[in-house]
Design a protein that fits this description.
Elements (H helix, E strand, L loop, with lengths): L6 E4 L5 H25 L4 H13 L2 H26 L7 H19 L5 H29 L4 H21 L27 E3 L2 E2 L1 H18 L1 H11 L1 H6 L4 H28 L4 H4 L3 H11 L7 H14 L11 H22 E4 L5 H9 L1
């Protein structure tokens, strides 16, 4: 009996149809797996998924809440996509998001109502981006100049940022804590001058800022010399050095810009729907979900927008599942399944499987056996 092996070979440049189909199949496969799980636990998958779609898009309020959830995911997805494109494994968007929120809320509280709204809101937004970049710098400089592993440092800094936020609100009498609430500690509301204007239910202009940043990031990476050099470094650092590209400088710049995107997400959340440094509203794992967004978007800045809306819809629909007796944790399972299938799909985009052709005498021998 002749056993024919399967050979894995590089596919080369994948077609546009393949690059679009694989992410869609990843989402579909995750929904099928989730449906099987729901069926095993006694729930009707079609009923649950229909309820989720209705909660996310079935009303003006649902659409508004979905876009609110998508706004920070666009930016944390960009943070991951930009870094991963250069093979810089920034897993710290969660911490950079929280530091952006802390700095933005602190600046807004410090300014009070002394600065006009036309200046206060931009200052708060820029401050959040700077806060995220500075938090990323703690990992960026050791990565560039000492060769440390950025996965470990960025991951650990997430927990430091989370505990810092909790300490400011729950463990101290800091300016970030609301002095008028004594029953349960909460964040001090930021002044109205620093808040983003709303135009549709609770939805504010943050969604337009996030989309504009995504377009800017796409243009920066795909249409500028800086972006070309970033892509070269990501493909082959040795080639980049041979071409005279300052690799350490490029890695540092991408790292800081990635942190700025995540910090901007925190600032928009504080200046927008949350309105304060509230740990219960900020500790949602939005930085980690941004990694799923980047993976499913295949590190494309423009593709991040629709993928973030999809993830925002899942996040928005999750709490409503309790009304039909389904645990909201099903959303977390779906997001994890989407990430697994998206990563697996990357293998088939980059490679193809084939069976080697066997000589006729081998085929004849195998048939006779």
């Amino acid at each position: 009996m002749t056993v024919r092996r399967i050979i894995v070979e590089p596919r080369g440049l994948a077609s546009l149809r393949l690059t679009l189909t694989v992410p869609l199949l990843s989402v579909l496969a995750a929904l099928v797996i989730g449906g099987v799980f729901l069926w095993i636990t006694g729930d009707n998958p079609f009923t649950v998924y229909g309820h989720m779609v209705d909660a996310a898009f079935g009303s003006s309020r649902g659409v508004s809440e979905t876009l609110i959830s998508a706004t920070p995911l666009i930016l944390t997805g960009l943070a991951a996509a930009l870094a991963f494109k250069m093979l810089v494994w920034n897993i710290g968007a969660e911490g950079q998001f929280l530091l952006g929120a802390i700095v933005a809320a602190g600046i807004a509280i410090a300014m009070g109502d002394t600065i006009p709204a036309v200046l206060a809101a931009p200052v708060v937004i820029v401050a959040g981006a700077v806060g995220g970049a500075l938090w990323a710098a703690i990992s960026a400089f050791p990565r560039v100049y000492l060769g440390t592993n950025e996965i470990i440092t960025t991951l650990m800094l997430n927990f430091i940022a989370l505990n810092l936020m909790n300490y400011l609100i729950f463990g101290s009498s800091s300016p970030w804590r609301d002095p008028l609430v004594s029953t349960f500690p909460t964040g001090r509301p930021i002044p109205d001058a620093a808040s983003l204007p709303r135009f549709f239910n609770r939805l504010d202009v943050g969604i337009f800022i996030a989309i504009a940043v995504a377009v800017f990031a796409w243009y920066l990476v795909n249409r500028t010399r800086w972006g070309f050099e970033v892509r070269v470094v990501g493909d082959s650092p040795e080639t980049a050095r041979y071409a005279g590209i300052q690799v350490p400088r490029k890695i540092l710049g991408v790292f800081l810009l990635s942190g700025a995107f995540a910090g901007l997400a925190g600032a928009l959340f504080v200046a927008g729907p949350v309105g304060a440094l509230d740990p219960r509203s900020l500790d949602l794992g939005l930085g980690f979900t941004g990694i799923i967004v980047a993976a499913l978007a295949r590190l494309n800045a423009l593709a991040v927008i629709p993928v973030a809306i999809l993830m925002g819809a899942l996040n928005n629909a999750g709490p409503s599942l309790q009304s039909i007796g389904v645990p909201p944790e099903i959303v977390t399972m779906l997001q994890g399944a989407i990430l697994i299938f998206a990563v697996g799909g990357e293998f088939f985009i980059a490679n193809r499987l084939r069976r080697p052709e066997l000589p006729p005498d081998v085929l004849t021998t195998g048939a006779a056996a």
